[in-house]
Design brief:
seven-stranded mixed beta sheet; 20 strands; single chain; five-stranded mixed beta sheet; globular; alpha/beta; 829 residues
Length: 829
Amino acid sequence: MSTETTVRESLEHAAESVGAAWPLHSFVTANPLAGFEDRPFWEAVREGERLFGARGYPSAEVLRRAWETDRIDPEVLSATLADHGYDDTPPERLLDRVETGETAETTETNQSGTTETETPEARMEGVLTKWLAAFFDQGQADWPMPNREDGLYAAVRAVVRHDRHVPNRSEVAEFPDDPVAAVENVLADWPSEQWESIFEYHLAGLPGWTGFVKHRVEAGDDWQSAYPATLTGYLAVRLVLADLFDAPIAPPEGTHTTDSDETPDEGAVPLPEIWLTAWETTYREELVGAVADAGRSQQSDHDGHGTDDGDSDRPAAQLVFCIDTRSEIVRRHVERAGPYETHGYAGFFGVPMRYEGYDAEVTVDACPPILDAQHRIAEQPTDESDPRRSDYEFWSRLRQSGSELLHTLKTNPGTVFGFVENTGGGYGLALAARTLLPARVYDALAATDDHVPDAHEFCAPTVDHEPGAPGELPQGLTHEEKVEYAATAFELMGWEAFARVVAFVGHAGQTANNPFESSLDCGACAGNPGGPSARLLAAICNEDAVREALRQRGHEIPHDTVFVAGEHNTTTDEITLYDGGVPESHAADLERLREDLAEARAGAAAERAADVGAAPASGVRETERRATDWAETRPEWGLAGNAAFVIGRRALTADLDLGGRSFLHSYDPATDPDGDALEAILTGPMVVTQWINCQYYFATVDNAAYGSGSKITQNPVGNVGVYQGNGGDLMTGLPLQSVLAADDEPYHQPLRLSVVVEAPVDRVTEILAAHDHLTDLLDNGWLSLTVVDPEREYRAFHYDGGLAWRAVRPAESGEATGPLLTADSADED
């Protein structure tokens, strides 16, 4: 094997230890320990501690607070402790042991007497991150770094030889031009068997920058095409600088390598995980019991000649929201406001597209990170002479010219001082208004928006396929693709009837002065607004040819059904409907729907008011203030609190207040006898929600390592990430304000995801048996899965590992658990 092959293979294995990190403008929540999902959760936590010095479990104080506030049921705790051999030890003493373990860990500090910033490695990383920020800058710097088109290694090598902070910088010219050869040069004195551990050590040294490089390479976007970067180039830069600074090349002695083939026994499960399991079990049993009870009640009504969904009349409208936990709250209030049905579907609405907005400078991949974009969709005017287009372009040019003028005046050495002198008073008044009267600023911005048209008012997505269009992705969709995407949506949700108005509602957040604003947008759209995806699917479903093809596939869409799109502002709970092209015959329907959506907004905002310390009566006004207050570190809670994913008919959860903690995906097992729809949900949305859940979990238990610290001390860098302070590693996780109510007081309860599925248990078993990644996640404890089986009177079965299930007690039974149900016995039952 050549040394070049050894370098590349060792690097590929070592890189699995660090998860990919998305840029700020398209923030995607992901599991920071995704590379260890093939191992037990506790072992992955241990690896995180070894590599990043991170804590992986809730603190003893958090666990104690959960226990004292009855979030951990005493009986569940006793049973869980007994299962792991802690039959006779009082819980208080066990919590003391957890706390003692934490204290011991935190006292393991640097004993050398040298401060961290004085070490050769720290000085080397200071220089490294300076040039990484310059190379990866995406338009923030006025003077871009030279030679970026030559690639990361070549560009940094060209400037480092002029950097006076680099010792022996004249020796840079002696290193090879090829990054692989440079790596081999630095590692000449180390045997190749150690290279993987050396690579892992250096990649984990700055996991934020490493994760960003990984994402950049995988994304292959316009920036990567213009200024290419590779993990090999990144590693070469770091090793060359480490050599020049005389920083450690190999891991310190005593650090074990990534090779760990030992199989832990049951007693190896850490005590904090046992407490965490009891907490999760308490939450899950209450949720499963409520869902199963609803299912039995529905089944009983049906057997008694009732209906599954109450009133059989056609609903006034059907609204399809994203499965996002924030949708759960507003869906309840929409259903209370009128005779409406709501459904849950992944917020990219099933079409993996690369989207280009009207006059946008960049395209975005509006689909989950586990999918690759398959189509290029651009917004184009429907009528070149539309006066709204002229108005839009006038205001757009005016804003752009003003922005360019201000930028020139503020950055040109000849004008900057005079500009400040002459405009300081005006800026001061504007700053005072935004600080002291943010709600009035919201009113002013809303009034301006009322007079300035949005692009969606005169544009439509390019739905039709254009074979000759340039680009690496096909422009638009073929007829067959349109039919398939529409049919897939209806089949996954189990639809058999349609209202006069069907609204696909995407979502986006609204915030000011917030580097992490994309984290409040749609995760299924890769941290982008979901409105464009909703508009695309609505346009597809309104095509006569598509509807005729759908009828041939068994989807009888009435002739008077109209599909519209909308967008849910998750900060203010306002829902905007895009009704371009809707016939006059449906004007009254839409007017009524808008009125009821306003009522639903008020109810949802009032419910959320308590979480932000406001009175229910001022909920709407408070959400508006938070959306435009540039000093507001917590405009909304995002997906904080997420703990469950319920897959099933809305009838099972319609009467439940799930507190905005559950992802909800519509699914009807009666319309999916082959399990194809359920398979798509378990392999797609369930995996994505597990990523989201892990991001929030780890950012809560150790925000310094897995989050990004306080927003107050963050500094954006290069439009790609944030620093804590003025340099260092990119902070890739959620800010502490997104998960903590106060210091050491989590708002987000750090629980692993509990998935509840309405389906025959043998159908779920078959799907799991066909997908090793799903069984790895379940068997290794990254999430839990419980099935409520409609074919067994909605008895609940909890996945017990190895494709086996354990019956959960019915609500009216005193039996704790039932016998083990294996794949074979499920077929026989």
